[in-house]
Amino acid sequence: MEEDDSDDSEVGLGDFVETDEESGGEDECVTLEPQRLARPLKGTQAQPDRSAEDDANVRTAQVQREGAERQLRYTPHVVTFPGAAGKPSGMSGSQNDMYASGIPTANNPYAPFSSRIDWELARWAKLRGPGSMALTELLQIPEVPERLGLSFYTADELNEIVDKRLPGCPRFVRHEVLIGNEVCEVFYRDIIACVRAIFGDPDFTPYLVFAPEKHYTDARKTQRMYHDMHTGRWWWATQEEVERKKPGATIIPIIISSDKTQLTLFRNKTAYPVYMTIGNIPKEIRRKPSSRAYILLAYLPTTKLERVSNKAARRRMIANLYHACMKKVLQPLESTGISGLSVVTGNGTTYRAHPIFACFVGDYPEQILVTLGYTGKCACCKILHKNLGDHAPEIAADLRDLTAILDILDSFDARPEDFLKSCAEAGIKPVIDPFWINLPYTHIFRSITPDVLHQLYQGIIKHLVAWLIEVYGAAEIDARCRRLPPNHHIRIFGNGISTLSKVTGHEHDQLCRILLALVLDMPPLESTISPAPVVRCVRAILDFLYLAQYPIHTDDTLALLDEALARFHADKQVFIDLGIREGFNLPKLHFVLHYSQSIRLFGTTDNFNTEYTERLHIDFTKDAYRATNRKDEFTQMTKWLERREKMHRHAQFVEWRLVQCGAPPEPRSLKWSPPGLDLGRRLHLAKHPSVMGVTVEHVVTKYGARFFREALARFITLTNKPGISRARLEEAIWNIHLPFRKVSVWHRIKFVQQDPLTLKFKTADSIHAQPIRTDSRQKEVPGRFDTALVNEGSGGITGITGNHVGQVRVVFSLPKAAHSILFPHEHSVPTHLAYVEWYTKPRSQPEPNHRLYKISRLVDERGDPICSIVPVKDIHQSVHLFPRFGASAPTEWTSFNVLDKCRTFYINPFSSKFMYRTLY
Fold first, then answer.
1. I want to staple 367 with a disulfide (CB 3.0 to 4.6 A). Which of 379, 397, 554, 762 is the partner?
2. What's the pLDDT score for residue 44?
3. Burial 789-823 (b: 16+ CB within 10 A, else e)
4. Closest among 2, 124, 84 to 727, alpha carbons compared
5. pLDDT band at residue 24, thresholds of 50, 70 and 90?
């Protein structure tokens, strides 16, 4: 027996090798959908694929990425700003104490409302409830106010309580501006009052940052780390300038955003809101609309000056109007940014603060308007329009000369006749008094921040999708969209993407997750040019897109960001050769050259995404407009917003009275975690199974777990005898008898993550394993069995090594009564198990052009799938797979059968930002 066993190895999946066969190849006769042909090609030279040299480059890039990703998880070595910068200057009463002094509270925590129900109904009416007429009609129902003990009987009486008896918030002021022969209105608030309101909000007190810091990944301080605004270089450099004149200062970085938005669909009614927030609040709080870290600062005039017939004069007048209004709003910063002012946090700590205009957040038209530039040029640097398509980092680093431009603007009074000529020579619009001209410590061309939504998703990605459709044809692109397998993070575009119109940023985000699958394994274009450069361009742009959205960066990851952009520029010529483009002089494509510089200055791009302010339009403009009677609407909108803010502030106060018992908020001592780098996830299964008792026969037939009995017997044997040889294992399997007929089954595995600030859990990922069923309309819903990444025991949080891809067929638990019979030696057996059909292990490095890992179904010599029972706790995350379509997607494939029909796949690293950060 010992001699027989010596030749047998322990059982493992490594004995099975990868196969390259796939369905739909040239040898198979497949009927294709009509007119799915590549676009005819204009004359060009063939471009060779990369091979050995490119393999070496990919391996080098893989090693660099691995090292860079590892550094992101290090606890940083922090260097604090020396001296008294950011230190408090005294103490006073807390904001809640000051608020309470304005309300005769007595023993009533809800005052000025008489009771809890009085307060709750008032809060519902102002924050969630219907219009004022509906509220009044409700209160006019006989005995409703009396039975509820309300202190108001109509909506007007409630408004009077809010207006006169609740402590105030920053009030709006109406100001008239004469432009030409037209009188325009601007509604704005005192920006200093707004700064004090945000800085003193008790909810933000535990998290405020008062001084800049330098974060390093190592003790030798060789690698900088950037995330929140205080880790960027701008705050540190500005703090040094302020400290030379006024030591002990606390800088409040002012972040301004403006964006015109549509209020109605038919009447062409618009609003021009200006939002403000401060960089002292961490970005994880700032980016959530529910945190109310942004405040509406102003409504600017939306006039089109249609009475001015000369278009150039009209554009100049609109620009001058914008800057005149913004100067009126921001003028208090000119003095307080230098001299400072006293501000108080929520717990009563006093600081000498210097509010300084730091960043402007806006789309391309707003950037051009702010910097006095011309459409078609860069808002920040001096590059010529004809050179916008060049990969020229050295030119992008050379920003416009602010001193020279300020000299030109100052020359208006002395030489008004030469002003227009000087502005034209400098490439700026002749705006006499831009709002930033006297703002201290402000370099407007450096203050323009990246705009991921409009520059990447609505810009470069939008162009790229259009180019690909033109290259390969809409029919083939749409056919591939319809045949991708489902996943928690993936939207299946059942009608394709070529007919989409008015595509949102969210839809472009979903497109990016599948974009590479639409160009993989395409045939040579007219047999004269390889499709490889197109694939490399798509991969490079997607790498740049995902790296640009990293919530934390180091100098190494920024080098990867720049390298991804360089890869696109190296292969972009293919679109010119194909006749798709004549050039790449696109301002949005050029501006991405400024991304790494901006991240080093102000922190990562999620500090300034215009997607946040786009969301604010709903709360601050559209909802406010719907609450008006459409007459003198901005007066009503500002009053409506003031009342809502008062109710929100009073809700804070009531909660403080009831829960905090008068104690000021104390900062929580939290373990440092990389901001936004949500690598920590927790597996979660429902307490009760989806189906209590599923027979083993149904597990085999309905769930497709064909070898369930054999796999379970194998699992039982290996659990009881971990070191058993292959020969003995095969013999022992047939001696296992299952003492049960049914198992409990779960149809979904969830992965939840915890918000580091609110400590609340949300679903971050899920894996489905559910058979065919009928919905409420008796319509058949196809089964869905997702693929997942399973830890073999040596796998880590990141990387492919030690992890194995498998398709989850059934998630189940054994009857408790069977445990003692099947596992007599008191082995610790997991409660939840999963039947998994395996794919081959990927090669050590990805393919050279698209840089994806290729896998195939793992089968035995009979063609049957290799399967195992694994503990559910070993399942790491869901995995989305790109089918290897070949030259054209087979018509018999669908989204629900492609995992069974196709044999070879590529692992999709773009299914989510989490997947991209963990798989490389």
1. 379
2. 37
3. bbbeeebeebbbeebbbbbbbbbbbbbeeeeeebe
4. 2
5. very low
Share of the chain above pLDDT 70, in %: 91
CA angle 680, 685, 686 (to 5 degrees): 135
What pLDDT is attached to residue 6? 37
pTM: 0.91
Angstrom distance (rounded) from CA 122 to CA 109:
15
DSSP string, 443-491: -HHHHBPP-IIIIIIIIIIHHHHHHHHHHH-HHHHHHHHTTSPPBTTB-
Q: How many CB atoms lie within 10 A of CB 669?
A: 6
Phi, psi of 416 (to 5 degrees): -60, -30
pLDDT in tens, 77-88: 999 999 999 999
Burial of residue 776 (number of CB atoms within 10 Å: 0-12, 13-18, 19+): exposed
Least confident of 231-240, 244-253, 558-567, 756-765: 756-765
Contact 659, 109 (CB under 8 A): no
Q: How many C-beta atoms surround the C-beta of residue 421 within 10 A?
A: 12
Mean pLDDT of 223-250: 96
Residue 917 pLDDT greater than 80, yes or no? yes
Residue ranges of E strands in 641-746: 682-684, 691-695, 742-746
pLDDT at 56: 72
Q: How far apart are CA 363 and CA 454, in angstroms?
A: 6
Average pLDDT over residues 369-392: 94
CB atoms within 10 A of CB 18: 15
What token pair was written down for 141?
């129902």
Distance of CA 108 to the CA centre of its chain: 43
Helices (H), 372-438: 393-396, 402-414, 416-426
Helices vs. strands in the chain: H and E counts, helices first: 34, 30
Which DSSP letter does residue 660 get?
I
pLDDT in tens, 273-303: 999 999 999 998 998 888 999 999 999 999 9
Asked whether the predicted pLDDT for residue 15 surpasses 80, the reply is: no
- Determine if residue 86 is left, alpha or beta; phi over 0 gives left, psi from -120 to 50 gives alpha, anything else beta: left
Residues 6+ apart with CB under 8 A from 272: 258, 259, 260, 261, 299, 300, 301, 302
Q: What is the mean pLDDT of residues 828-843?
A: 92
Q: Is 804 helix (H, G, I), strand (E, B) or coil?
A: strand
What percent of the chain has pLDDT above 90?
Answer: 67
> Bridge partners of 10?
725
Question: What's the number of CA atoms in the CB half-sphere (13 Å) around residue 565?
Answer: 24
Taking CA atoms, 232 is separated from 204, 475, 476, 552, 686, in Å, by: 21, 47, 46, 11, 43
Burial (CB count within 10 angstroms: exposed 0-12, middle 13-18, buried 19+), residue 302: middle
- What does the pLDDT read at residue 395? 85
Report cis status (omega within 30 of 0) of the bond before 282: no
Q: How far is Cα 355 from Cα 196, in angstroms, rounded to an integer?
A: 10
Question: Alpha-carbon distance 233 to 123, whole Å?
Answer: 43
Sheet strand arrangement including 854-856 = 854-856, 904-907, 881-883
DSSP state for residue 791 in the 8-state scheme: E
Question: What end-to-end distance do the CA atoms of the chain give, in Å?
Answer: 46
Other C-beta atoms lying within 10 Å of the C-beta of residue 14: 10
Quick one: which H or E segment has residue 568?
A: helix 555-571
The burial of 232, by beta-carbon neighbours within 10 Å (0-12 exposed, 13-18 middle, 19 or more buried), is given as buried
Q: How far apart are CA 745 and CA 808, in angstroms?
A: 12
Confidence of residue 671 (pLDDT cuts 50, 70, 90): low
